[in-house]
Specification:
The chain is an alpha/beta fold. Helix content is 31%, strand content 22%. It contains five helices and eight strands; from the N terminus they run βαβαββαβββαβα. The protein starts with a strand and ends with a helix. The structure holds iron/sulfur cluster (SF4). Iron/sulfur cluster binds at residues 10-12, 18-19, 44-46, 104, 107, 109-110.
Length: 179
C-alpha cells in the first residue's frame, strides 16, 4: 500500500463552506488532479482563530510590510487575534507531516502573493501584502514548497510544485533515517 504525501490547503479550496459569506471556493485542480498524488490537510485560519460563519469581510490595512487585519465596515482590528492563532498553529503543523501548502489567492489571511493592502491615509489599494497566516507559515517553514491555487492551473507551475513537494519529502525522509 502506498501512503500519499500530505499537503496543507486553504480549507475553502477543498469545498468546505468556511468563507465569510458561508460559501466555498472549491478548486477541482486541487481535489481532482493533485488529489491523485496527495492527501490534504485543510486549514481555515479565520474560522480556526474563532471567527464565525458568516462573518464581516476583512482587509489588510496600513504598512504592507506589517499590515493590520481590519473588518471593513465596523473597523475592528483582528490582527492580534489572528497572530496569536498563527503562532500556535505553525507549531501544531510541525507535527502534521505536511510537505507543502496551497494557499487561497487574495485573502487577507491566506493570500501568498500581492494581497491588496488599503492605505487609510490616501484611500489607495496596493497589491503588496501577504495574508497574515500565509506570512507566518512561510516564515516558520522557509524550506516548505508553497503555492497559490490559481497558479496551479498553469501546467508548468503545477509540475514544478509537484516536483518540489516530492523533493521536500525525500529530503525530510533522508534526515529521519540519518544514523
Ligand atoms: S481564511 Fe483562508 S481558508 Fe478560510 S475562507 Fe478565507 S481564504 Fe479560505
Amino acid at each position: 500500500m502506498t501512503t500519499l504525501i500530505k499537503v496543507g490547503v486553504s480549507a475553502c479550496l477543498l469545498g468546505e463552506r468556511v468563507r465569510y459569506d458561508g460559501g466555498h471556493m472549491h478548486d477541482p485542480t486541487i481535489t481532482d488532479t493533485l488529489g491523485r498524488l496527495f492527501t490534504f490537510h485543510p486549514v481555515c485560519p479565520e474560522v480556526e482563530c474563532g471567527m464565525p460563519i458568516p462573518r464581516e469581510p476583512m482587509r489588510l490595512e496600513g504598512d504592507p510590510a506589517s499590515p493590520r487585519l481590519m473588518t471593513r465596515q465596523s473597523r475592528i482590528d483582528k490582527t492580534d487575534q489572528m497572530l496569536s492563532y498563527c503562532n500556535q498553529k505553525v507549531q501544531d503543523l510541525e507535527k502534521a507531516d505536511i510537505c507543502g501548502f496551497i494557499f487561497k489567492k487574495d485573502s487577507p489571511s491566506s493570500g501568498l502573493y500581492r494581497v491588496k493592502v488599503f492605505n487609510p491615509e490616501d484611500g489607495a489599494l496596493r497589491e503588496a501584502g501577504r495574508g497574515l497566516f500565509a506570512d507566518a507559515f512561510a516564515r516558520h517553514f522557509p524550506q516548505m514548497p508553497v503555492e497559490e491555487a490559481e497558479r496551479l492551473n498553469d501546467t508548468s507551475i503545477r509540475e514544478n510544485f509537484i516536483e518540489r513537494v516530492f523533493a521536500f519529502r525525500l529530503w525530510r525522509d533522508s534526515l529521519d533515517t540519518r544514523p
